[in-house]
Amino acid sequence: MKIAIIGSGYVGLVSGACLADFGHTVTCIDKDAFKISALKRGDIPIFEPGLESLIVRNLQDERLTFTTDFAGPVGEADAVFIAVGTPSRRGDGHADLCHVYEAAREIAHALRGSTVVITKSTVPVGTGDEVERIIREECPHADFAVASNPEFLREGAAIQDFKHPDRIVIGVESDLARQVLMQVYRPLFLNKSPVLFTSRRSAELIKYAANAFLAMKITFINEIADLCEKVNADIQEVALGIGSDNRIGSKFLHAGPGFGGSCFPKDTVALIKSAQDYGSSVRLVETTVAINDARKRAMARRIIEAVGGNVRGKTIAIFGLTFKPNTDDMREAPSISIIQALQDAGAHIQAYDPKGMEQARMLWSDVAFRSNPYDAAENASAICILTEWEQFRALDFKRLAKLVATPIMLDFRNIYSADEVTRHGFAYFRIGAASRTGPAPTNVSPSEQEAVA
After folding, report:
1. Contacts of 117 (CB under 8 A, 6+ apart)
2. How many CA atoms lie within 13 A of 406 on its CB side?
3. Which residue from 133, 342, 355, 430 could staple onto 347, CB 3.0 to 4.6 Å apart?
4. What whole-number distance in Å separates Cα of residue 314 and Cα of residue 448?
5. Both ends of the chain: CA-CA distance in Å?
6. Which residues of the chain are under the pLDDT cut of 50?
7. Are 283 and 417 a contacting pair, CB within 8 Å?
8. Distance CA 107, CA 139 (A)
9. pLDDT at position 436
10. What is the structure's pLDDT at 445?
11. Closest Cα to residue 143, out of 152, 132, 151?
C-alpha cells in the first residue's frame, strides 16, 4: 500500500519505519526542511534503540522516503496518518490540536481518489469528528473516511511494541476505513496480533484511559513505598506480593521518584480537562497528577536530609537525567524538578546521562555535565541515581568511594541491595526501604525547608 505520514517526530518516525519494513511504500512528510534533509542522510534526530538501522535499511530499499512536499504523497496515498504533536496547551492544560487541524485542512486540498485519514496522534474524544468536518468543509466532494488508530509505544522499546503489539486499536465509522486498515496491518496478522475494532470515539478514549490507569498504578506503588518506610516494610517485597496476583500484574509496580515523559503527564491532564468539559470528573486521575507533581520535588528534600540537612555549597552527583532508560527524552523527567529544587537550596550539580545530556544542556546552563559517572561523582557529597540505565547497575564502588567527598548514595530506582553498597562504606538510601543504612538524617533547617517547598 501507499502510505503518507504527516509528522516526522517520535511516533511518525517509528510508525513510518516499521510500516515500510512490512513492505508498504511510506512517505514521511514534515515542514522542517532541515530535519528532512538530515533524515534523507540517515541522521536520526531522536535516540530509539534499533530505529536508525531500520530507517537506513528501508531508505536504501526505497520503501521509505522523506519529503517536505505535501500534495504529491498525500494525493497518491491509500492511507494518510496524522502523527503530529499534541502538547499541553499553554494556560489551561487541554491538548493543543492546532497541528492536527492544520494537517486536516492541508490533507483536504491534496486528496485524490479514495483515501483513509487516520489520527495516530494522541487526541481527545471527538477529535476525529472535527477532522472529518474540516475535510468535508474544505473539500465537499472528497472520497475519504476518518479513523482513529492510537499508538501504544514505549520509548526504548517502540519497534518491538509496533511489530509485536499487545493489541491494535482501530476506531472506524465506515467499511472503507476498516478494509484499508486491515490491509495496513495485515503483516501483523501472521503474528496473531489481536486487532480491536471499535467506534472512533472509543478508540480515542482508550488511549487516554490506558495512560491514566498506568500513571495511577505508578502513583499507587509510590505511595505504598512511602508507607513501607513508616511501618518498617520493604516495597520490593510488597510489590512482588501484590504483582503476583494476575488481576493486578507486576508491570508498573516499581517505586521511584515519579512518572515523567512525553505521554503520562500531558495525557493525564488532557483527560482531566476533557472530562471537565463533559461535566464528568475523574477525581482519581486528578489526585494522581497532584501527587506525582509533589513527589518529584519531595525527592530533593530526601537528598538534603541524607547529607545532613544542608546542601548549600555542596556538590550533588546525578546519575541519569532522562525520564527512563534507552531514550534521550527529557520531557517532564523527575530530574528537572529535583535538580531545580537542589539548586534552589544552594547545591552544585554534576550530572551524567548516557544519551540525554544534549537535550539536558538546553534546560540548564549551570549544571556541570560530565563524560561518565565517575567524573560526575568527584568531590560529591552524595550520589543520586535517578534513571536506571544499564551501565549504572554495575558501578565500581571502590573507585567511587575514593572520588566522593562523602560516601552517600540515594538509589531512587532501587537497582542495588543495601549490602552491596554499604560494604564499600557508603550510607545507602532507597525508595520504600524498611530502614536506612548509615547515619540517621538530621532535621532539615527552616531555610532549607523553605527553599525546596
Report:
1. 79, 80, 82, 104, 107, 131, 135, 144, 145, 146, 147
2. 20
3. 342
4. 13
5. 56
6. 438-453
7. no
8. 10
9. 53
10. 46
11. 132
Give the Cα separation of 444 and 315 in Å (integer).
17
Say if CB 2 and CB 77 are below 8 A apart: yes
User: Which pLDDT value is given to residue 332?
Assistant: 95
Identity of residue 55: I
Q: Give the Cα separation of 441 and 443 in Å (integer).
A: 7
217 — phi, psi (to 5°)? -65, -40
**SS3 track for the chain:** CEEEEECCCHHHHHHHHHHHHCCCEEEEECCCHHHHHHHHCCCCCCCCCCHHHHHHHHHHCCCEEEECCCHHHHHHCCEEEECCCCCECCCCCCECCHHHHHHHHHHHHHCCCCEEEEECCCCCCCHHHHHHHHHHHHCCCCCEEEEECCCCCCCCCHHHHHHCCCCEEEECCCHHHHHHHHHHCHHHHCCCCCEEEECHHHHHHHHHHHHHHHHHHHHHHHHHHHHHHHHCCCHHHHHHHHHCCCCCCCCCCCCCCCCCCCCHHHHHHHHHHHHHHCCCCCHHHHHHHHHHHHHHHHHHHHHHHHCCCCCCCCEEEEECCCCCCCCCCCCCCHHHHHHHHHHHCCCEEEEECCCCHHHHCCCCCCCEECCCHHHHHCCCCEEEECCCCHHHCCCCHHHHHHHCCCCEEEECCCCCCHHHHHCCCCEEEECCCCCCECCCCCCCCHHHHHHHC
Q: Are 384 and 413 in contact (CB under 8 A)?
A: no
Q: Cell 486536516, residue?
A: 104
Report in angstroms the alpha-carbon separations of 172 from 86, 194, 202, 270: 21, 16, 10, 23
Distance CA 62, CA 294 (A): 49
The grid coordinates of residue 222 equal: 509510590
- Residue 306 pairs in a beta bridge with none
Are the C-beta atoms of residues 174 and 145 closer than 8 Å to each other? yes
Burial code (b: 16+ CB inside 10 Å, e: under 16) for 320-344 equals bbbbbbbbbbbbbbbbbbbbbbbbb
Pick the catalytic residue from 18, 228, 263, 384.
263
Residue 434 pLDDT? 56
pLDDT recorded at residue 453: 44
Cell numbers at 78, concatenated: 491509500
**Residues ≥6 apart with Cβ < 8 Å to 71:** 109, 110
Q: How far is CA 199 from the centre of its chain?
A: 26
Could you confirm whether 263 is annotated as catalytic? yes
Smallest CA-to-CA distance from 429 within 449, 405, 413, 406 is with 413
Whether 59 contacts 22, CB under 8 Å: no
What local confidence, expressed as pLDDT, does residue 435 receive?
Answer: 52
